[in-house]
Design goal:
heterodimer; A: mainly alpha; B: alpha+beta; four-stranded mixed beta sheet; 18 strands; 50% helix
């Protein structure tokens, strides 16, 4: 058991939620998602993004449309479906509870 | 030197070294075999290739001639190897399967009813019940307090539950409970109605109507139904009081968590979307401009109505408070004469109502209100001055508030009841003739002469105008309910006609009320003594009893008023009905003391002026 595994597990936990948040704010294509995450300082293996996006799309939470791009091949622009909104909300709830719990549990730690 | 090849990767032309290409191809193949098992694997693969090619293209735009091994390894590290992805994808896909099959229930029927360790004020009973039913514990506590106040058994139930329920043995499950907050984002006054409406999942309109209803009803219901009027009469101040109390004790929902808790699980997506966007973007702060003018108007009207209704109630209650304190003291120290009117708690209560239950209720409510208000004010001042911010124990606070509200409501309801007891008027005439007497002048007096007092007849009366009523030693109420009216007699004899009135809720009660009053009129030779006070039988309630003494004086006879109080020429009419209380005062002709009047041609003439001339 090494530290990177645990850290990566922690990140994995919030990945879906973060991706959905990004897509929810604005229609984006995958590279944009990665860039936004980098700006927010959330590291991830880019390779994990694509399977996740496809899975979410197949489950009906996301939908996309193709848009022609001047600088290359056409891009997929993702957005949230109704089902995705509900799904997102449940995740938001869970995140709040989790954040609260962690906050409570860690607040008395001495530095 | 390197051999380069051009490849078409996802629609982009990439120049790549041969050895780098080998590695890339290996990587892409491993991805392919990995994603083959998955649904939509082709699409995933295609997207990943697209990204890889995009990254390559970016590198080339920066000036790279061709992609080399380092670049490829870099990209592989960025994208992730299949085995790294495998962990993620496995757990991710497993999670998805799990999520679809098992919903996360908020009401878990496998839950047992237990006491709560974390959510407790006294014993954790209410907290445990709240957790089991998934309602806000404050609501449960209100219910308990209410039941205890009304039927007294709430306390017993609580103790029993506390004894038999074990503490919860599971870790506290953190679910997003639905809690009662004030919703200040959607408010007219303080967001109380908004928060309540969200908690109970009713349209906010109904909540606002609920609080406004007594004001509207008390104006109109009086003409339709008396019971409705009584309820609205009691409801208006109690609900306003409740609103103010809720405004003070309910917390505002400030953080996003709290705002989400307002709605609990069934969140309106648009509400949260708004809240999150406001928090995330921190942009413009425009709030519902189109509705604000209309609501501001409503707010102003509401406040004015509140002020108009509450203010006189406020003044009246201050006066009543003063009376209560006097009564409290006299009752505590058993000094009936303290208030100067011979009043003590029980005789006061029996004047208002003859129903012993209501008498007790009246005294208890008065005590409660006076005591609680005094307590709140004193502790409030103490905390203000001493800077002691510690709050009163919650259960104490809540029960005190409930007690106050119930007492106020009861008082007003009782008031309605008493008003109801004035609606039927009973009227009775009694006539009696006076004995013949020899003197020329007929004297009308309200004061007994000293000689009679010496005979031990009746005590000399105190004609102080200031005290309009008092309670005598026999516990009887004496008040100025006698009016004098002098009329020319229809025949040649002196008559005294008594017109007695009294009120009640029905004919029977009105008659009873009439029989409770005593008039004292005595003829002593040529003098007619009329006691200015009516006496009510002990413990009989005041029900507008009044008597008009019509003294009929025959033609050519002279009379002289002596020691007649000017107030005796005044008569009162009680008109207490639904929604209005009127006491009409009017005067009969006033005849001055020590003046001589003569009945001449069926008119009464003041002889003193004539004689002066």
């Amino acid at each position: 058991m090494n530290i990177e595994n645990t850290q990566s597990q922690m990140r994995k936990g919030v990945l879906e939620f973060c991706i959905l948040s990004i897509i929810r704010s604005k229609e984006v294509y995958p590279s944009e998602i990665i860039d936004t995450m980098k700006e927010a300082d959330l590291q991830l293996l880019e390779g994990t993004l694509y399977p996740l996006l496809t899975r979410l799309k197949n489950a009906g939470y996301l939908s996309y449309r193709w848009e022609e791009s001047s600088s290359g091949p056409p891009r997929k622009y993702f957005n949230l479906t109704e089902k995705g909104e509900k799904f997102y909300w449940q995740l938001a709830q869970t995140w709040q509870q989790l954040a609260n719990a962690v906050q409570i549990l860690t607040q008395n730690q001495k530095p | 030197m390197n051999k380069t090849i051009n490849i078409n990767l996802a629609g982009r032309l990439i120049t790549i070294n041969e050895d780098a290409f080998e590695i890339l191809q290996q990587y892409l193949n491993s991805l392919k075999s990995h994603f083959n098992k998955e649904e939509g694997g082709e699409e995933i693969l295609h997207d990943m290739e697209d990204r890889v090619s995009e990254l390559f293209e970016m590198k080339m735009k920066k000036g790279k001639v061709s992609i080399d091994v380092n670049d490829v390894n870099e990209i592989i590290a960025i994208m992730g190897r299949p085995e790294e992805l495998m962990d993620e994808s496995d757990s991710a896909s497993n999670e998805h399967k799990e999520k679809n099959s098992k919903q996360d229930p908020l009401i878990d029927f496998g839950k047992k009813l237990r006491k709560s360790k974390s959510e407790k004020i006294i014993g954790g009973v209410c907290g445990g019940m709240a957790h089991y039913f998934n309602i806000d514990p404050t609501i449960i506590r209100f219910i308990f307090a209410f039941i205890t106040l009304l039927w007294g058994t709430g306390l017993l139930i609580y103790v029993i539950l506390w004894a038999i329920l074990p503490y919860e043995d599971e870790k506290p499950v953190l679910k997003l409970k639905k809690r009662l907050y004030r919703n200040t984002e959607n408010k007219v006054l303080g967001g109380v109605c908004s928060g309540l409406a969200a908690y109970f999942n009713i349209d906010i309109i109904w909540m606002r109507l609920l609080f406004l209803a007594p004001f509207i009803l008390s104006v109109s219901a009086g003409y339709f139904d008396f019971h409705l009027f009584k309820i609205s009469l009691g409801g208006a101040p109690s609900l306003s009081l409740l609103y103010i109390i809720l405004w003070v004790i309910l917390p505002e929902a400030k953080t996003l968590t709290e705002k989400m808790e307002i709605q609990g699980e069934k969140l309106d997506v648009h509400n949260i979307s708004n809240a999150m966007k406001q928090q995330e973007s921190q942009q413009s702060e425009e709030k519902m401009p189109k509705k604000s003018v209309f609501w501001k108007l409503i707010k102003v009207v509401f406040l004015v109505a509140l002020a108009v209704v509450i203010f006189p109630v406020f003044i009246v209650s201050i006066i009543l408070l003063f009376v209560f304190f006097t009564i409290l003291l006299s009752y505590l120290f058993k000094i009936p004469q303290l208030s100067g009117m011979g009043l003590d708690a029980s005789s006061f209560a029996s004047l208002i109502t003859d129903n012993p239950m209501h008498q007790t209720g009246l005294i208890i409510s008065m005590f409660c209100i006076a005591f609680l208000l005094l307590w709140f004010i004193i502790t409030g001042f103490y905390r203000l001055l001493s800077g002691n911010k510690k709050k009163i124990a919650p259960w104490l606070r809540i029960s005190a508030i409930w007690l106050l509200i119930v007492s106020v409501f009861y008082l007003f309801w009782l008031g309605g009841n008493v008003a109801d007891d004035f609606k039927v008027k009973h009227f009775k005439k009694e006539t009696f003739h006076l004995q013949d007497f020899s003197s020329d002048t007929f004297i009308i007096s309200q004061k007994l002469s000293d000689s009679l007092e010496k005979e031990g007849y009746i005590k000399l009366y105190d004609l102080k105008e200031s005290s309009s009523f008092k309670i005598n030693e026999n516990n009887e109420l004496e008040f100025k309910g006698v009016s004098l009216n002098i009329v020319p007699s229809k025949d040649s004899f002196f008559h005294v006609e008594l017109e007695k009135t009294a009120y009640g809720s029905n004919e029977k009660r009105a008659k009873e009320a009439l029989q409770n009053m005593q008039v004292t009129i005595q003829q002593q030779g040529s003098m007619l003594y009329v006691n200015p006070n009516l006496t009510l039988k002990a413990n009989a309630p005041f029900r507008g009893q009044h008597v008009v003494v019509n003294i009929e004086i025959p033609e050519n006879k002279v009379f002289e008023p002596k020691d007649v109080s000017i107030y005796s020429w005044m008569t009162r009419e009680y008109n207490i009905g639904k929604g209005n209380v009127q006491i009409k005062k009017s005067y009969f002709p006033i005849y001055q003391n020590n003046n001589f009047y003569k009945v001449s041609n069926h008119e009464i003439v003041n002889m003193s002026n004539n004689e002066a001339e």
